[in-house]
Design brief:
The chain is α+β, with helices and mostly antiparallel strands and 806 residues long. The strands form twelve sheets. Strands 30-33-34-38-37-36-35 form a seven-stranded mixed β-sheet, with helices on both faces. The longest helix is centred in the C-terminal third of the chain and has 19 residues, at 782-800. The protein is elongated. The mean pLDDT is 91.
Length: 806
């Protein structure tokens, strides 16, 4: 939001300096992003008279000029401008002046053997335009020695503030002035809007035909002004519009733009002679189009609210007008429209059509409904003052919505929420100066919110208003009191600790943390098991961020591909964050996920002299997942690894992690080729995802304290077993059965061979495992080892149907 200092002072009576105003704006939450003060930047430049302009003795295209800058003896300046001549007035810069258009600082120099003490300047050299053809040629009555910025009216600083989306009231200069006046830096100038009667009834019929969707346009006002003369707007209006980056077009259009910024009230003017019949507010019909004032033809749909006449659509309500009914220099009769539009519908329509206008910016944040009719009267007066003509009475359809909202407010809420002790008188004056009406004198009062503050809904909002005007610097820092008891319980929940530890564990595995959007495109959501209607955003910030994510993996996969597209193909990323299965709190889970691409198991290796490094596979993702579970203190003895997984994983290169069939906690594997194609991914990508909420909770029961590290000084024994099992028997089942045969002695079971072929029955496989026995009390005898071996064979046979291979 941009405005000039003089424009602000139209609404605020103040003697405060520019610096004080800027500091106060930031203090009350209207953060100043920049100040453009051309008077300060152009301070050295003055109006000068060219006394003489002689041909340079050593250069055909240069002239030697004598310049009177009004501060002493004439100065000699070498000038290359073709329009330099004796008797003209121009702009002079003395030595030591910084020239923005050339990015140089002037000094006394010699040009082709002739000394030059300064410079005569063009508009481009001052940074005021693109005209390089010659120096500025000022009128003969321009006063010599006057600062050029003052002469040219460039002494009005431009302030730019950053508005948060809730402060729609400060999308107007009047609203900003109101906030500043509440701080005491100035006084808000009074608003007087006497009704404009007009002559005769507006002859243009007006109707709102929205049926049950009447809230899309609850209030519409219209007035006809005959006999206008549409020419350039006044110089003061053009100067202000240019200062904030708008291009003056003509008086009628400039008036609407001016009021958009001055009062936060967007309006639209139609050329009345180009409107056929009456105006109707309705929903667009499928296939209707509008060539708008931005030069583009927009195809409309049944959710777009339009203003139409007998010829069809003339304007997209609250966003942009049509070219066919626009005003130009031939316009003599105009229809001025001031209406209310549904903010959510405006936002959706503007985003769908890709149209960004100052009107849309304000309507989608919410304009003051009470200023609809006064805004029409204000615009009409400006049209009559600048363009002349005769105004009709106002034609009205609908009625303004009820905006009265009363908040039961205890004064003690300020101290409770903000820690600042203020007097009731000060708090009341603050609220009333911001436009709130306070009723009551006790500890609790009723506060009526003004029509221009739809963002104030409860007690905390009122506290915020009081505190930001009082100043956060008035809050005294106080140390937190220590509890009297020494016993302090844990401050983090199990899930919070797991979230923190998961990030640390995955970082130690060589993965880099990524933070991706919680919203993804609908196609990605459907691909990864989401896409429920209740998880689609009503007001997405972009078309490809339309649904809440059902998984962390889509964002990580696209992040890995983005890195690959930029030359970093060996990438390993992880994220810990929320995922959404439903729109209810119980449908939200915290998950940890990781993605590896290329040779990412060798982090940072890149290209290597020995050739291509091996690419990642599903086992790397499995190792990441198991390492994460171990780091979180999860006992994996009962963990089952089942082949297969979700549809987006390769069926032969993936697995599900579960503590029983009814308690899956995650998955791992290689991304399915179909999913790769759908996401436009290339290469080999593997991923895993663990649902932290689904992991077993730690058991807090008294246990005997075990030593941190207990090592046996006895020799371990390893025995190999080759079992013949069915082809569909998982290796994990054999391992689990072998471990359960003698838990005190068996410390490890590892698969070292799988064989199918000659000597093995059809439909079966040979699975060879190495079992590690670790005695702790005494060395095992051969008989004891044989007894344990028999137990292992029997247990594996019982649990899996295996037989010992001959």
């Amino acid at each position: 939001m941009k405005f000039t200092l003089s424009w602000l002072k139209d609404h605020l009576d103040t003697e405060a300096s520019l610096e004080a105003i800027a500091e106060m704006l930031t203090k009350i939450g209207l953060e100043v992003e920049g100040i453009e003060d051309k008077a300060a930047a152009l301070k050295p430049y003055v109006v000068a008279n060219v006394i003489s302009a002689e041909q340079h003795p050593n250069a055909d295209r240069l002239r030697v000029c004598m310049v009177d800058a009004g501060d002493g003896a004439p100065l000699q300046v070498v000038c290359g401008a073709p329009n330099a001549r004796a008797g003209m007035k121009s702009v002079f810069a003395p030595p030591g002046t910084y020239v923005p258009g050339k990015n140089i600082t002037l000094s006394v120099g010699t040009i082709r053997g002739v000394e030059s003490r300064g410079m005569l300047c063009s508009g481009a050299e001052l940074g005021l335009g693109e005209d390089h053809d010659g120096i500025l040629d000022l009128p003969a009555n321009a006063p010599i020695g006057m600062p050029y910025a003052l002469y040219a009216g460039l002494d009005d600083p431009v302030i730019e503030i950053n508005l948060t989306p809730n402060r729609s009231d400060c999308a107007s200069i009047h609203g900003i002035a109101r906030d500043l006046a509440a701080t005491g830096i100035g006084t808000l100038k009074g608003d007087v809007f006497p009704a404009l009667r007009g002559d005769g009834v507006c002859p243009v019929p007006l109707a709102i035909e929205l049926g049950a969707d009447r809230d899309l346009c609850p209030y519409f006002t219209l007035r006809l002004v005959r006999g206008v003369k549409n020419g350039p707007s006044p110089d003061w209006m053009q100067a202000r519009l240019r200062a904030i980056g708008l291009r003056p077009i003509n008086a009628l259009v400039d008036i609407t733009n001016y009021l958009t910024f001055d009062r936060g009230r967007p309006l639209h003017v139609f050329d009345a002679k180009k409107v056929a019949g009456g105006l109707t507010v309705r929903l667009a019909r499928e296939g209707e189009e509008l060539k708008a004032l931005d030069g583009r033809t927009h195809r409309l749909d049944a959710e777009t609210v339009v203003i139409a006449d007998q010829n069809g659509v003339e304007s997209i309500g609250g966003i942009i007008g049509g070219e066919a009914s626009g005003c130009d220099e031939t316009t003599t009769d105009v229809l001025i429209e001031s209406a209310l539009w549904n903010p959510r519908n405006i936002a959706r329509t503007g985003r769908r059509l890709g149209v960004i206008t100052d009107a849309r910016y304000r309507f989608e944040r919410g304009v003051d409904p009470a200023f609809t009719l006064p805004g029409l009267d204000t615009a009409t007066r400006l049209v009559l003052d600048i363009c002349g003509g005769t105004a009709s009475q106002t034609s009205i359809a609908g009625e303004p919505p009820e905006t009265d909202h009363v908040i039961d407010f205890p004064w003690t809420e300020v101290r409770r929420l903000a820690g600042l002790e203020l007097s009731r008188a000060e708090m009341k004056v603050t609220l009333e100066s911001l436009g709130f009406h306070v009723a009551g004198n006790g500890d609790r009062v009723n506060v009526l919110t003004p029509s221009w503050r739809p963002d104030v809904e409860g007690k905390a909002d009122l506290v915020e208003e009081i505190i930001r005007i009082a100043g956060l610097d008035r809050i005294e820092p106080k140390p937190l009191l220590r509890p009297e008891t020494s016993a302090v319980g844990p401050k983090l929940t199990v899930l919070q600790r797991r979230t923190r530890n998961a990030k640390r564990a995955l970082a130690t595995r060589g993965l880099f943390e990524a933070v991706t959007w919680s919203f993804i495109r609908r196609e990605d959501a459907l691909l990864f098991g989401g896409g429920r209607p209740d998880l689609a955003l009503a007001n997405p910030i972009a078309s490809d961020l339309s649904d809440m994510r059902p998984s962390l993996v889509p964002g990580l996969l696209r992040g890995a591909q983005a890195n690959a597209d930029r030359g970093y193909g060996d990438v390993a990323l992880f994220e810990v964050g929320q995922c959404f299965e439903t729109d209810q709190p119980e449908g939200q889970t915290i998950r940890a996920a990781g993605v590896r691409r290329g040779s990412a198991r060798h982090a940072g290796a890149g290209r290597h002299w020995s050739g291509t490094l091996p690419v990642v596979d599903a086992f790397e993702a499995k190792a990441d997942a198991l390492a994460l579970l171990t780091a979180l203190g999860i006992q994996t003895g009962g963990l089952q690894i089942v082949a297969g997984g979700p549809e987006w994983l390769h069926p032969g290169r993936s697995g599900i992690l579960q503590f029983g069939p009814k308690n899956p906690v995650g998955w791992f594997g290689e991304i399915h080729p179909k999913a790769m194609k759908a996401l436009d991914l290339k290469g080999i990508l593997v991923a895993f995802e663990i649902t932290l909420d689904a992991l077993p909770l730690p058991k807090y029961k008294p246990t005997k304290v075990k030593p941190a590290l207990a090592l046996s000084d006895l020799q371990a024994v390893s025995r190999d077993f080759a079992f013949v099992v069915g082809r569909d028997v998982a290796a994990a089942d054999v391992i689990r059965a072998a471990q359960g045969a003698e838990r005190k002695l068996i410390t490890g079971v590892d698969v070292f061979d799988i064989y199918e072929g000659a000597g093995i029955p059809e439909g079966s496989k040979s699975l060879a495992v190495a079992v590690r026995l670790q005695p702790t009390e005494r060395t095992l005898t051969d008989a004891e080892i044989e007894a344990v071996s028999a137990k292992i064979v029997a247990e594996v046979a019982k649990k899996t149907g295996a037989t010992l291979r001959a």
